[in-house]
Structure prediction request, 270 residues.
Amino acid sequence: MAYEALLVDVAGGVARITINRPDRRNALSPAVVAELGAALAAADQDPAVRVVVLTGAGEKAFSAGGDLGGGGLGGSGGGGDDAPEGFVGRHERGRRFASLFTTMAGLGVPIVARVNGHALAGGFGLMLACDFTVAHDEVQVGTPEIDVGLFPMMIMATMARNVPRKRVLEMALLGERVGAREAAAWGIFNRVVPRAELDTAVGEIVGKLLAKSPAVLRLGRRAFYAMSEMPFTAALEYLNAMLTVNTTAEDAMEGIMAFLSKRPPAWKGK
Prediction:
């Protein structure tokens, strides 16, 4: 598939997806949202892909959120294909953004956010929807929508699942930016490193993921996101069933035999 707003490269088991709008600070236009959903779904269906790395072009922004001047999330529209089609059209665009989060949660491959610059508003929510977040120490995150008379409605679903409750309210109500080191202390980032070490830090996580059974990663990731929406007792019943499925996988048997034989496992992806 040809993409207009993204760069997509697949090599060595990794699908690297880059939001390619550096002139707009990688803002989430309707085209970006649609193409992200398509690219992630395609990566999930590609047997050659074991890990997705999501990033933004340039050095200023991972994503600055909705394209306010181009008809993006909460935007006023700039005419042409990006112009909102009245109230219903604007509402449906929000639903498409929600659908992107649903797509991300349903993938069988892990997503690593390479946070190359600021992640704000919808871009912050997009980052939080990834499984791993790796940033350099000059990055700032935040939800500044309140300052332009908007509220971070859609991304509160990902914020509430990844950020402590009081910090969610602080970010949403005050709209202030938070530095990477402080955000890491809140649990928002898995790794924060100097800018020059960003790719090395991302590569370390990707390399470790590539060494795991792709079948078990797929089973486990999907189980995690399904379980996290269930009541406690229902989650336990579901996880018990998934454990039974897990133990019958060929890779589980291979992993145990490799452990007992003191050798590296040879994963079959089954």
The longest strand covers residues 6-11. Residues 86-106 form the longest helix (21 residues). Strands lie at 6-11, 14-19, 51-56, 61-63, 111-115, 118-120, 132-136, 140-142, 178-179, 191-193. The radius of gyration is 19 Å.
